[in-house]
Amino acid sequence: MIDPLFLEGIIKILFVFVLISAGLIISTRNLSSVLTTYTIQSFLLAAVSFLLYLIDGKSQLLLLAGLTLASKVILIPYFISRIEEKIKIGRDLHFAYLEPTPSLLLSIGLILLSYTFLSKVFEGLPLTKLFFFGAVIGLSLTLMGMLVMFSRKKVVTKALGYLSMENGVLMFGLFVTELPFIIEVLIIIDLVILVMLTTILAVGMDSSIEEYRQKFRKLQVWTGVESQ
Amino acid sequence: MLEVLMYGAIAALISGTVLPLLYRSKNTRKASFGLSLISSVLLLGFAGAILYTGKEPVFPAIRYLPGLDFTLAADRLAAGFILLIAAVVPGVSIYSIEYVEHAKSEARKNLQAALTNLFILAMLMVVLAGNMVGFLIFWEIMSLSSLLLVLHDYSSEENKKAGFFYFVMTNISTAFLFLGFIILFRLTGSAEFGPLEYSASELALPFLFLFIGFGVKAGLVPFHKWLPYAHPAAPSSVSALMSGVMLKVAVYGFLRFLLSVSTPELWWGVLIITAGSLSALFGVIYALKENDIKRLLAYSSIENIGIIFTGIGLYVIFRVEGLESLALLSLAGSCFHAFNHALFKSLLFLCAGSIVHATGTRKIEAFGGLVKSMPATSALFMVGSVSIAALPPTNGFAGELLLYQAFFQSFAVTNPLLTVFLIIALSSFALTGALAAALFVKLFGITCLAMPRSEKSSLAKEVPKHMLIGPAIPAALCILGGLFSKQLLSLAGWEIEFPDLLLLGLLLGLIYAALFLIIRSKETSPARISETWGCGIPTLAPYMEYSSAGFSEPLVMIFKNIYRTKIVHRAEYFDRQESLFRNGNVEIRLLRFFEEYLYIPPARAIESFSKYVSKLQNGKLDSYVLYAFLAVIVLIIATGGFV
Questions:
Q1: Of A217, B67, B407, B619, which is most buried by a Cβ count within 10 Å?
Q2: Domain tally, chain B
């Protein structure tokens, strides 16, 4: 049996890497790098889940680690890398509302906000320091994923932002809420994302939302009359 | 027994609403109006019994949602206003049987019949509502059904504008009512209309909100502008209901609140009297200048609502001063005038409808000589005019006499400033009465007397019998209500010192008869029928007659400060620099003071604000996600207790 304190130390190091990966998703311009970062982030989460299993010994945690590994480290990145091969553009250069540097500064603010917020919310609850930090990282990750969704232009990046946000929810769930429930929800969400991604794939993942609409119009998918 | 009458009336009105929607034919429309007639007879029994015996029936509450009871209640105040509804509806229903047939299509005819019944039902239920929830629900149904009736002839641009204006104003009214009722609900913790024993500062805000809310609906100056737009647009039978009953329902709501307050403040009364006097004065002054018969009657409604509110204000002041019997007198005067106005205004609107139908125009300048072509309608129209001008022995005289009595006894008020204020209010009240008399001399004279001023008027024919029987009912009630006013008031439980108009009426009749006989017997030579002397001009032409504008010219001169004119330029240019003139026009028209300074600026402000707000909705996904993000952040900050 490995010493729990040692494991907790490793989890704390992984937290730092999770945060770094979130920052990279916000600021990286190269699409394949963003995908790689997301894959690494998911892998880190799977690792955290596995380490928690080693500490607690709850089988659900192992299940969760496996699920995360299968869906978020292998399946989804595989799909998205297929798209990135198909589309011509490899980079997402444009930002809306926030450039990378202000975004990163804002994310620092978000982490501080979640820290103070959760320390007020969990005041008086018997929560160890590790679990508290896990919750803070989870919430910040969620907010940062949301930030990606509105500050990046390309649909691929937006989708990755959403997935990263969902990672934050998973993180939060790992440390705070009841597990069996969250596993079910996560599986459903993951399936939805998979379906969503695969259905949208074929048409113009390389564009921004507005151009995307135009393409749909041309294809007469939404309204046959307008295109004439 | 009483409950049976009321449920019967409600059932009749509901079936009157549903029936014309099911099957389009003349018979269903007739049946529909017949049902509203039946309901009014039932209501007459119901309200009369409550007023006479003073026994108030109790109805079981229906709970449709937790915390939302639906209760019905009929106390003496409600019974008084139900009586008012029951008095106006028969005339309108009989009149409508024929009148509705002039609508453009079968569908519209049936819709008008159904909506009229729904409108009556909604007004009845507002008065019967036992709590605020029911009151507001039926208030909205009343507003919407009347809006649809105003928009009856929706194809014309003018009517669309009228409908929109009415819609906006009626919603403003409802919004203020909601605010007032919500504050009352928070104060009392229940939606019931119960006694309000709270300090004046706690009740000041609900009072103001309810005053504005009911004031907008009743048509008090400066919230009156929807009336002169809505009435010409609506069918005349609907105008009769709106002006006769709906405005009074607003008065009822206001009284319902005011009577439940145990300690009103002096400034409430001063505010109500000021608004009432201004409405009365402005209403009649604007009416004098008006050339559209229905718009003139709408302005006259504003005047009468002003008189009713003056009485309510007097009631508040006397109550604050501790003069209970005077307070009762003013309240009785106010309610009685509301009842009377419902009768003669519906009569006048119905007659106006007949005249407009016969001549095809609403312009007073185009009428004339109708007393020869439409003698029965003219006679009914005269009864209405005499009543509204408050000439004895009609009911208009009786109602205003009560208020004058209350005013005359206001020397009992100890506060000298208040006495001065009441004297000013009395003089403006008296001025209103005089101007109203002049107004209706003009209206009746120009419309019915002399020679026809236009071809349309000379071709006018008497209307069918239903359109005569309808207005004849309120006309008879106007005269009987005046003659038996003392008896009616004591039947309703108000033992007030009041002259017996029956005696006065008999005396007047005897004097007129005696004078007639004396002149007849003393005449030196038999009557000679010939043309009026025309200053040597061989034949008199209609254009030589006293015109509507000519009649009101002296009064217009006196009040010329109120009738300000405005010069409006409009020019179009070929180029952007505005140097090559294309065309344009300049008009001098009456300054629409309230519209241009009170209504349009806030409307513009709201418009520019909404333009600013609508920029938020820019169709970009990024922005929407940003809003969601900001909302989450705000939520975190708010729930985290940082604020």
A1: B407
A2: 3
Answer yes or no: do A117 and B620 touch at CB < 8 A.
no
Query: What distance in Å separates residue B627's CA from the closest CA in chain A?
Result: 9
pLDDT category at A13 given cuts 50, 70, 90 is: very high
pLDDT band at B378 (very low <50, low <70, confident <90, very high): very high
Check: CB of residue B448 under 8 Å from CB of residue B359.
no
Q: What percent of chain B has pLDDT over 90?
A: 51
Residue A222 has pLDDT above 50, yes or no: no
pLDDT band at A207 (very low <50, low <70, confident <90, very high): low
Please answer yes or no on whether A210 and B625 come within 8 Å at the CB atom: no
Q: Which residues of B touch A165 (CB under 8 A)?
A: none
Among residues A201, A91, A208, A203, the alpha carbon closest in space to that of B623 is found at A208
| Residue B126 three-state SS | helix
Among B499, B530, B563, give the residue marking a domain's end.
B563
Average pLDDT for B521-528: 80
Q: Tens digit of pLDDT for each residue in B529-550?
A: 887 777 888 777 777 888 888 8
A104-109: long-range contacts at Cβ-Cβ below 8 A with a sequence spacing of 24 or more? A104/A23, A104/A26, A104/A27, A106/A147, A107/A22, A107/A23, A107/A26, A107/A140, A107/A143, A107/A144, A107/A147
Residues B553 and B610 in one domain: no
Higher pLDDT, B362 or B589: B362
Does one domain contain both B512 and B363? Answer: yes
Q: Is residue B324 part of a domain?
A: no
Say if residue B509 is in the same domain as residue B622.
no
For residue B622, being part of any structural domain is answered with yes
Q: Name chain A contacts of B629, Cβ cutoff 8 Å.
A: 143, 146-147, 149-150
Query: Same structural domain for residues B353 and B472?
Result: yes
DSSP state of A202: T
Q: Are residues B505 and B593 in the same domain?
A: no
Same domain, B556 and B624: no
d(CA A147, CA B55): 69
Q: Considering CB atoms only, which of B622, B637, B639 is closest to A150?
A: B622
Chain B residues near residue A147 by CB distance under 8 angstroms: 629
Judge: B620–A143 Cβ closer than 8 Å, yes or no. Answer: no
- Indicate if B373 and B479 belong to the same structural domain: yes
Probe site for chain B from A112, A150, A208 (most B CB atoms < 10 A): A150
Pairing mode, strands B68-70 and B62-65: antiparallel
Chain B residues within an 8 Å CB radius of A158: 621
Interface of A with B (CB under 8 A): 96-97, 110, 113-114, 116-117, 120-121, 143, 146-147, 149-151, 153, 158, 209-210
Q: Does B542 fall in a domain?
A: no
Instruction: Report helix, strand or coil for B259.
Output: helix
Query: Nearest chain B Cα to A95, which residue?
Result: B622
Q: pTM of the entire structure?
A: 0.78
Helix (H) or strand (E) segment spanning residue A199 = helix A179-201
Q: Do residues B132 and B112 both lie within one domain? A: yes
- How many whole angstroms from its chain centre is CA A159? 9
Tell me which chain B residue has its CA closest to the CA of residue A147: B629
Residues of chain A in contact with residue B633, where contact means CB-CB under 8 angstroms, are 110, 113, 143
> Is B260 among the domain residues?
no
Reference B163, options B134, B143, B182, B140; nearest CA is B143
**Chain A residue closest to B634 (CA)?**
A113
Kindly report, residue by residue over B218-263, the tens digit of the pLDDT.
999 888 889 999 998 999 999 999 999 999 999 999 999 999 988 8
Look at residue A228 and tell me whether its pLDDT is greater than 60: no
Last residue of a domain, one of B130, B159, B189: B189
- ipTM for the predicted complex comes to 0.79
What pLDDT is attached to residue A206? 56
Mean pLDDT of the residues in chain B: 89
